[in-house]
Amino acid sequence: MRQISESKRNNVVQCLSNGFSARETASKTGVSKRSINRISQVTLGVKSKPRIGRPLKVTSTNIDYIVQQVTKNGIQSASKVSQILSNDLELSLNATSIRRLLKTLGIVPLIKRKKPLLRKKNIADRVAFAKSHIAWTETNWKHVVWSDETKINLFGSDKIHWCYKRKDTQLKQQHVQQTVKHGDGLFIDGNMDKQLYKTILQEDLLRTLEDCHLNPKDVVFVHDNDPKHKSILVTDWLNNQEFEAM
Q1: Is the pLDDT of residue 80 over 60?
Q2: What residue numbers bound the domain in which 212 lies?
């Protein structure tokens, strides 16, 4: 079946919304009546036929306004678009009809991808890290011991966030959900400081290496750039260990 272009779909929707029959719409747009009936059912929820009385309220201007709300203004739900139409244009159009319209225009809902909220320095550091380890093999990474972290939600939640995006277009800022990770490795009673962190490394890290039968000379210990981790007290202790700290 031949794919109908987005512009032709828009023309069909506009003609049907203005009260033209399937035959009249076919004559004006060059789209078959069968395709027009299918578009009408998806978009308007009814079969195309000559209308009696008032034409539908959805005009080409209304359609452009709806598309703008979800593609440029980043409105994330059809219900919210319905409220905006009611407030701004005094147009009553329910969320279901808006979803059908957007689907006909090739604009589909998707779950936002989660993306860490990073500063430019964070991004540069990550790129540098990736480039410096691009040649590492699976064997290399098996010698890496990562500091464990528990995720604590201090920024947003784990619920699913939806948005709208045109098919075959790149992700934009409005299509991702910014995330921030936080948390220290062990559950502790009180505040973590450099002395306590050093104690944890001395007792728990070394014991972990022993329990896992890992030779410290072959181990790379990785932790983040928290100020406590980079303190002179901790750095001096790490420099005197057999394992490498990254």
Answers
A1: yes
A2: 194-245
For residue 194, what are its two tokens? Answer: 């450099």
Beta-strand ranges (E) seen in 129-179 are 144-146, 162-166, 176-179
Reported confidence tier of residue 156, pLDDT bands at 50, 70, 90: low
User: Structurally, how many domains does the chain consist of?
Assistant: 2
Phi, psi of 162 (to 5 degrees): -105, 160
Whole-number pLDDT of residue 110: 79
- The CA angle 205-184-233, to the nearest 5 degrees, is 60
CATH of the domain at 28: 1.10.10
pLDDT above 60 (res 120): yes
Cα separation of the two ends of the chain: 57
Cβ-based neighbours of 138, under 8 Å, separated by 6 or more: none
Specify whether the CB–CB gap between 8 and 26 falls below 8 A: no
Paired with 195 in beta bridges are: none
Whether the model clears a pTM of 0.70, i.e. scores above it, the answer is no
Q: CB of 106 within 8 A of CB of 83?
A: no
CB 10 within 8 A of CB 28: no
Give the per-residue pLDDT at 157.
60
